[in-house]
Amino acid sequence: MSKDSPFDAAAPVLVPMPAERPYTYAVPSGMRVVPGSIVRVPLGPRQVAGIVWDGGADAVDARKLRPIEEVFDCPPIAGPMRRFVDWVAHYTLSAPGMVARMLLRAPEAFDPEPWTEGIVRTDALPDRMTAARARVLEAADGGLAWTRTGLAHAAGVSSTVIDGLKAQGVFETVMIPPRPVVAAPDPAYAQPQLAPDQQVAADMLRAGVAADGFGVTLLDGVTGSGKTEVYFEAVAEALEKGRQVLILLPEIALTHAFLERFQDRFGAKPGEWHSDLAPRMREKVWRQVAEGTVRVVAGARSALFLPFRELGLIVVDEEHDPAYKQEDRVFYNARDMAVVRGHLGGFPVVLSSATPSVESRVNATRGRYRHAVLSGRFAEAALPDLKAVDMRRAPPAKGSFLSPLLTEQIGATLEKGEQSLLFLNRRGYAPLTLCRVCGHRFGCPVCSAWLVEHRFRGQLVCHHCGHAEKRPEACPECGTFDHLAACGPGVERIAEEVVATFPEARTIVLSSDIVGGVRRLRLELEAIAKGDADIVIGTQLVAKGHNFPNMTLVGVVDADLGLANGDPRAAERTFQLLSQVTGRAGRTGKKSHGLLQTYQPDHPVMQAIVSGNAESFYAREIAERERAGLPPFGRLAGVIVSAATRAEAEGHARALRRAAPEAADIFVLGPAEAPLALVAGRHRFRLLVQGERRSDMQAFVRAMLANGPKQRGSVRVQVDIDPQSFL
DNA sequence: AGCACGCCGACT
DNA sequence: GTCGGCGTGCTC
């Protein structure tokens, strides 16, 4: 830069947009920026927040070069976090700018929170004492700063009394710093009583944190074995060392109970982070994490991109949960990225689950992860007595979906004044509607999935893309009236049957399309826990960590659902889901039961669930995957192909097969694996491609992108299988 | 990702 | 005659 330029230097700045590399901006003389500084820069017609990046700035045409407008008064993004952004971008084949965008999603937080004006007592005395003045002086006795209205309220006087005292110099103005969103957690607040096996695991985790280095521990133990208390000890250790902690939860909006458990242990709530957070709170949490005021965050996957300065531990609770996958924009699995974050930050990571993912199990048995197992001997008494109901031998009556045995048990439970849970992972009334006259089936005009009937709403709804239409009375194909047949059950239809059989019972349906959203859902869950329902019929959202103390029967309406969809993880997913659901019963000390309606009672998943022998299931699943070269052994890389039509997407898939030397190992999965990708009329298929190395796979996809500029943006790599192959 | 520019259908 | 659909291209 020439001597008389108004700018001293140029800096690389990562802007929140799909740029492959940082843009170069001029640094006005007198402005100081360092890597990590958050700056305001002009970008096209608008102003955006960007992050000053590492390395030198590109040489850019001086006419294009524009100046940084402002450096925000905000702690710079720390080095490990910047390397994390680069790493995630490289690994997911996303633009670094798009990863940076995830970090900058609290735009108001870059300016410091304002200090508020307060008043504090001086040595001066008022000229005359009155009753009101006396009350004020008494209330303000501690020498602490008050807000004007706050003190008036506390003393029970009008604020003019305060103004009068202030005018006489009895109070003086001071500035009060912003209040922390949560109090500081105290690692010694409530020392837990740990069972011997918990103590062993807790010591192991504590030692990992104390040793101050990267390492992953899989914390593995059945429902009720006390995993949370155990990893809280690791949290305590990290806090004692002055480090920040991140606890990832799959769906924090519904895990209110978790925050309370945390408070019981540490005397304060953790900072919360999820998409439902009010914008004002969002800013505060972001800012206070950056400043180090918030020491512990409990959050959804996006919390991984909070600007921690002194992160010293990540716990991933329910590490197997598919909610950790983000499947839009930047595709990542937060569990895997947490492991990477720990590696880059040089601190330990704890993965916790009663039903670990197969890949984490394999990493543990191979010694890449430490394995802390809770035997759960103390929880065993509470486990429900589980049985498979062979639907071939004991079929339900025609037109119904509950077997006589299950119906009988519901009745018995009802009589005892206890609660039943019927689980069916399918929203709506019926998954398919057809015309009995011409055989016409109602499909989605946008994405070709079947339309699901929602009878309460009188609609046919596509569960992939959200398309909805009114349920017609006549067949659109042959015009016949009143001959449309609902095929198969959804939760609404099960509710219909239950209400017909047990009209006196209080029945409630819980699914994600409940009117009133998350708030209503939370209220309903609390009501159920209090005993305000006899029979609960729900989709998978009832499986997630909610305790229903009077729930003594769990009936799985269709235990086979999810086993037959061609997903290599179908068995594993079903095992995990059924374990969680059946675990909802038996938290009571009372005798409790679980019934699984199945046409495949000999299936390994059913056997494992019924016998409680998870070990045999894992062993079998691992052996089978090893033989088939499936994850986590094949080092599979995934590709999502998207196109406007199904035929076009399949064409892309064929082209990929032709172009890939590993063609024999490419296989196409239906949209079931990535339902969220089926949006806006774009068909997306995930291809799993088995290559020698991930880098080969990436090179292959890059070549595909280079060959067909029309395909840019329609072919992406998603690698989410083997979280340690990259370290 | 935004946002502008730009070219073809139904309407105040 | 305009309003408005989303295809293409650009941002230091």
Automatic annotation (TrEMBL):
Q: Can you give the residue ranges of the Helicase ATP-binding domain?
A: 208-374
The protein's gene is named priA
Task: Cite the binding residues for Zn(2+) 1.
Answer: C435, C438, C475, C478
Cross-referenced NCBIfam families = priA, PRK05580.2-2, PRK05580.2-3
Record HAMAP family: PriA
Protein name, entry field: Replication restart protein PriA
Co-factor(s): Zn(2+)
Q: Which residues form a coiled coil?
A: none
Q: Which UniProt keywords apply?
A: ATP-binding, DNA replication, DNA-binding, Helicase, Hydrolase, Isomerase, Metal-binding, Nucleotide-binding, Primosome, Zinc
Subunit composition and interactions: Component of the replication restart primosome.
Determine if Chaperone is one of this entry's keywords: no
Stored Gene3D superfamilies: P-loop containing nucleotide triphosphate hydrolases, PriA, 3(prime) DNA-binding domain
Protein task: Initiates the restart of stalled replication forks, which reloads the replicative helicase on sites other than the origin of replication. Recognizes and binds to abandoned replication forks and remodels them to uncover a helicase loading site. Promotes assembly of the primosome at these replication forks.
Query: Which organism encodes this protein?
Result: Ollibium composti
Q: Which reaction does it catalyse?
A: ATP + H2O = ADP + phosphate + H(+); Couples ATP hydrolysis with the unwinding of duplex DNA by translocating in the 3'-5' direction
Cofactor info, note text: Binds 2 zinc ions per subunit.
The EC number(s) attached to this protein equal 5.6.2.4
Q: What is the lineage of its organism?
A: Bacteria, Pseudomonadati, Pseudomonadota, Alphaproteobacteria, Hyphomicrobiales
Identify the residues that bind Zn(2+) 2.
Answer: C444, C447, C462, C465
